Amino acid sequence: MPDDAVFLALAHPVRRRLLQILAEGPRIAGDLAEQFDLSRPAVAEHLQILRRAALVRDEQVGRQRRYHLTAEPLAEVEDWLHPFEHFWRARLRSFADIAEENT
Asked: What Gene3D superfamilies does the annotation carry (predicted)?
């Protein structure tokens, strides 16, 4: 089962968005901060939480920090969620059926 820190990190929409951005490739901290209507220290705090959960890693590049997605904890979440997938599929199928009837 994934560490609780991973679930806590994923619970916040800013951190989920940071992971989506980093899935496209490594980014400098300043570039990440520009993606949000938040202060740089606030974004840095979110990155720190992601780092503590091992969802991102950082490297020093000159005077800047470059962040990289670390996908292993996300794979653990996927493995943990897999047994529950049949609940989602059934609900999505029901939703699709209702939507089709109303069109």
From this structure: Winged helix-like DNA-binding domain superfamily/Winged helix DNA-binding domain
CA atoms within 13 A on the CB side of 48: 6
**Cα separations in angstroms, 77 against 6, 53, 56:** 8, 12, 15
For residues 32 and 47, the answer to whether their CB atoms sit within 8 Å is yes
Q: pLDDT by residue (tens digit) across 21-62?
A: 999 999 999 999 999 999 999 999 999 999 999 999 999 989
CATH class of the 4-101 domain in this structure = mainly alpha
- Output phi, psi for 55, to 5 deg: -85, -20
Are 3 and 74 in contact, with CB atoms under 8 Å apart? no
Find, among 18, 89, 95, the residue nearest to 49 by Cα. Answer: 18
pTM for this model (two decimals): 0.78
